[in-house]
Amino acid sequence: MTPRPAADPTIAASSDRPGAADHFRLLAELGGDIAVRIDLPDCTLRYLSPGFSTLLGADGAALQAVLAGGGAQEALGALGRQLAAGAAGAPGERLVQEVEVRNAHGHPLGLQVITRVVQNDDGSSTLLALLRDLSPQRAHLADQRRFASLLNHEFRTPLATIDGAIQRLEATAHGADEAVRQRYRKIAVAVDRLIAMLDEYLSPDRMAAIGKLRQPNTIVARELLEAGVQQLRAAGREAVVEVDGDENAAALRGEPEGLRLALKVLVDNALLFSPAGTPVALGVRRSGSGVEFTVRDEGAGVPAQDAAHIFDKGYRGSNAVGLPGSGLGLYMAHSIVDVHGGMLRLGERDGKQGAEFRLWLPAQHMGGQQQLASSPPSSDNRTDH
Length: 385
Known about the structure:
Elements: H1 20-30, E1 34-40, E2 44-48, H2 51-56, H3 60-67, H4 73-87, E3 94-102, E4 108-119, E5 125-133, H5 135-172, H6 178-201, H7 204-209, E6 218-220, H8 221-234, E7 239-243, E8 251-253, H9 256-272, E9 280-287, E10 290-296, H10 304-307, H11 329-339, E11 343-346, E12 356-362
Parallel strand pairs: 7-9
Antiparallel strand pairs: 1-2, 1-5, 3-4, 4-5, 6-8, 9-10, 10-12, 11-12
Helix pairs in contact: 5-6, 8-9, 9-11
């Protein structure tokens, strides 16, 4: 269909049909993004933020030509196709896609394109689109990769030196007593653990993958629970799984790797502070507008005087004497959960043996604020490792 002549794309949307489009345009431009309004079904451009010309060096006429199937296809073709895909969507459907275009100088530029079709009061339809320049985000990710690479190198070099030295000491310590040999082994295990963390979180392959694909921002509760179960089984422990209804099917809002790390810290604690061979219980249940996980062991718990400081940075309780650790595990887990809008606390044990952590996370499609149905924290837990 041949589009009718486009209105001046620099005229505010309120000039003809005020409403949701005006609010959308205002919010988009206040956030530094580009607002686009297209009348359907003939794909007539009715509004385009002035920032479009600043960013791409092209005007509304060039974008209209692309929407009509011609014009600067090489430079703006991907954007035109994504807008056309959004126009074909159902009313209210939100589509998000990243596209690569070229500006007036031929330089590549990444755009995030968010589209939604809205129904107007007169029965007509309008496509609202938000264009977001991904250059700052990609530059930030590149800085993160460079910083991580620097950390990887700076930490790995001294660790390799320590690792080589401890191996030589172990190989030549024929006359050393058992206590000295045990100290050597503790140093070797600590070095291996640090190197493994570098490989897992700061490896070049992992850093190279950041930013290539849109990172997931949800994880299903059962996947998080299964990660804890697999960790226990790998350590030779029995995992007792307690699921209340179908709550393990709920989708949790958050960065999956970060949430897995938070749960891993809790399971590590259970393994470290409970007798070998005893089971560890992992549970999940609905709690208010989210899902609550529990990690419960059959250890001795924590002395009452240590409970108030359990999540403090670098804190190690009286029951951690002689055990490996730096006092950063629970501090880190608490920080991760807090960033995700969740809550990590000690559970109520009612005089039972062992310790319990309760990790609450917000779930998708559940309205409301955090609501923890459990009791206030108790002292029946122990410090981190």
